[in-house]
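Our collaborator T.R. sent over the components below with a one-line note: 'Predict the complex.' Nothing else. No constraints on interfaces, no templates requested, no preferences about which chain binds where. So this is a plain run: every listed entity goes in together, and whatever single assembly comes back becomes the starting point for the next discussion.
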Amino acid sequence: MRAGVLSAADLVDRALESIAALDGPLNAFVTVDAEAARLAARRADAERAAGVDRGPLHGIPVAVKDIIETAGMTTEMGSAHFAGHVPGQDATCVRRLREAGAIIVGKTTTHEFAYGPTGDRSRNGPSRNPHDPARMTGGSSGGSAAAVAAGMVPLAIGTDTGGSVRIPAALCGVVGFKPAYGAVPVHGVFPLASSLDHVGVLAGTAEDCGPAFRVLAGQVPASATQVGSPRVARLVTDAPPLVDPSVAGVVEAAFPDAEEVTFPGVAELYQVYAAIQGSEAYAVHADRVARSPHLFDPEVLDRLRHAGGIPGWRYVRAAEARESFRGRVAALLDRYDLLALPTVAVPAPPIGARDLEVGGVRVPVRDALLSFTSPWNLAGVPAVSVPAGAVGGLPVGAQLICAAGREETLLAYADRVRAVSSRAPSRPAPPRGEPR
Amino acid sequence: MRAGVLSAADLVDRALESIAALDGPLNAFVTVDAEAARLAARRADAERAAGVDRGPLHGIPVAVKDIIETAGMTTEMGSAHFAGHVPGQDATCVRRLREAGAIIVGKTTTHEFAYGPTGDRSRNGPSRNPHDPARMTGGSSGGSAAAVAAGMVPLAIGTDTGGSVRIPAALCGVVGFKPAYGAVPVHGVFPLASSLDHVGVLAGTAEDCGPAFRVLAGQVPASATQVGSPRVARLVTDAPPLVDPSVAGVVEAAFPDAEEVTFPGVAELYQVYAAIQGSEAYAVHADRVARSPHLFDPEVLDRLRHAGGIPGWRYVRAAEARESFRGRVAALLDRYDLLALPTVAVPAPPIGARDLEVGGVRVPVRDALLSFTSPWNLAGVPAVSVPAGAVGGLPVGAQLICAAGREETLLAYADRVRAVSSRAPSRPAPPRGEPR
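Returned assembly:
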């Protein structure tokens, strides 16, 4: 666009056409506002013609998870509780995107209230994996991942409380990045669990995440980041459940020069995460559960009720355990620049599956999806998932962690991983219609 | 002692004699180590003779609440769970006292695990009010308050999670001071509720609290503090329950020049306090409750079990409400240097009482004791109770609050209150033996 070869109007038209052509079977979008997007694109082009350049997002079509408020555009949180809800104001992150010239084309399918990593329980139905529409996108930012993976938009915004950006990124074969806790304001983002909620971005490459991150965090553009040879630890944790051996092999091969570091005590963090996330989530929804339980998806309601029964003293102990874990992570990130591990223990499970076999053991799907990502929400450190290969034709993600404030180094290195790995599936063929 | 008129050995002997003469009916002490105290006193005198002056606490007898660890001296937490427990190390606050030359003469009766403001449930029986041994000291630092009020020691150390220093100070007619949250390390102090626990001091005057505070906080001695004319707000809150009208009258008269300020929204803080304190307390005791419930006092066990049932989401909401209250307190302490209000709504109730009448309404004794003090544990700001008068021959305390870091101003002003009030009962006559 800077060279005058392409206009924002062209790009937005392509995005809208692509959504129209591909989204039927994928259900990545719950709302598309073509008219507003075309208007904004024309305005962006007029500005550029007048010599105004708002930066690298100027004229770029962006999709926003439907848990994030957009002024004048329906925002339903994936829930009947918010059917037809039209916010009066943009969330801070949306406002920053618009100020940077980005064009919001629509809102993407979210697991109801972002309360689930499977991405298949939403008022508007499950989002579907572009690599196999019978399979989950993962969630809760499933629509954002599918929209980027299918090439409908180059960039999408999501939220990540236990992995909700990284999990669908891994299962759909795109890059999903959550900056450090607090780096991007959550004002206007419907809360899931306030001490764990992060705003994140999904894009085709880590390089593309950089400008969006800087805009969302309200930072001045970074100067060229020297990556050099970061000290990378490939973590071998006791995270439950066991990781699929093929997935482990792909991630191991993606970091041939990393030092293998055993990091125990991760298994118990899953209960720590559950106690904190559940208690904080129920604090948000207690009144809705009491007043209008019938408006919840039944599975979400069941899970909320269970969460409401977690005792306060377990929350207190979990908060203590989190502090201790943060200390251990800080010590590890003093010794290593980056930590590498799988993003998700398995490739995308079928939509609706609630348990599966991992290394010969039957485990709940939610545990298999969350166990490698949720510790880094407890720690509050930046984390990115990058495509690292494939198993059975389905994408596998590798996860990289760094210390807060070192996001630029993380993103610069993450793209090297992508370059090293030659087994990442390329953009999928257009989906073949509804799965059987 | 600096003038050579008095020795530490003399002072400690007087304290020990006074304890021997007075403590039978009062039960302020659970452990007295006369031999160790006399040895430490001789050492303090020898040091002074050799030209070493450790400061204002050099040679001063001090009593320590039995929830605070003392190396080689039994520390039972008021509980059969710790019968005969002899710690190997001093709590940080005790170590600082000893390094400042203070002489630990013994350990004072605490409500079991400091879990109760009545001071009448302890493995070693209730502490008794020197003004009327049939009445409560208040708690949980009841023994420390009684020991100072009866003149057995000039200084005692306590802990304050919801008022446990200030309440017994008010009911026994002495000064009780809790510095800001975190100002005195809690290492070696058995936890009650970790986000609310404070170490505090009890003495005859606020002036006497100053040197102890500086030692406990690890500060260099303060230079002369100019109080000037602080802006004082006399708070009229909706704290439950209503305050006894006679108590209100005494406190009002103690601050004739204060501006009356209505401060609503305090009533609901009592539930906020209960949710946080209960959840944190049960997190400490859950394993003991499961393993050996019979070792608890039955009332303490009942209260713990109730606390264990508080849901996590209520803890989360309480933590949010606390944050909002902290903001309101900070705003108020921008406008006023000091906030004044009653310490306790009623004079000392009879030992064992569990409800009483306040302003014509029947209320639980614990609520009547805690409702004016516990908000300042939520806020974490310094608070002191000073004797302000009497009702029916029983002491009434006035409470003063300031911003964190302004403890010296608080203490300097608190002694003015004492001087203004002429109705505070003087030191009680030696108690007349066991109550009927």
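Summary for T.R.: Residues 430-436 of chain B have pLDDT under 50 and may be disordered.
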